[in-house]
Amino acid sequence: MEETGRNQQLGRLIPSLNRVLFEKIVPPSKTSAGILLPEKTNKLNSGKVVAVGPGTRDRDGKLIPVTVKEGDTVLLPEYGGTEVKLCEKEYHLFREDDLLGTLHD
Description:
By secondary structure, the protein is mainly beta. It has one helix and eight strands. Helices cover 10% and strands 33% of the residues. Strands 6-7-1-2-5-8 form a six-stranded antiparallel beta sheet. A two-stranded antiparallel sheet has the order 3-4. The protein starts with a helix and ends with a strand.
């Protein structure tokens, strides 16, 4: 039931222009066997795209759509963006121009 409420809340938030809403990916702090992992200094700052805006317009008024889509994993800059709390969960909002790239398996 909580997941449904969260999805409804997220469904109400549509990012403006070329903004992307994502949930940060936090690497596990311990293994499945319960061994604590030390924090790595050069950890990857990534997130999963939850929602995207429609895009921005060029000088002629033509729509330039956002190139990432929901479910994509993106590489994020260390600083910037806006923190958004929905249903007690933390999300982040960045302009598409600020994203560093898309990660593929």
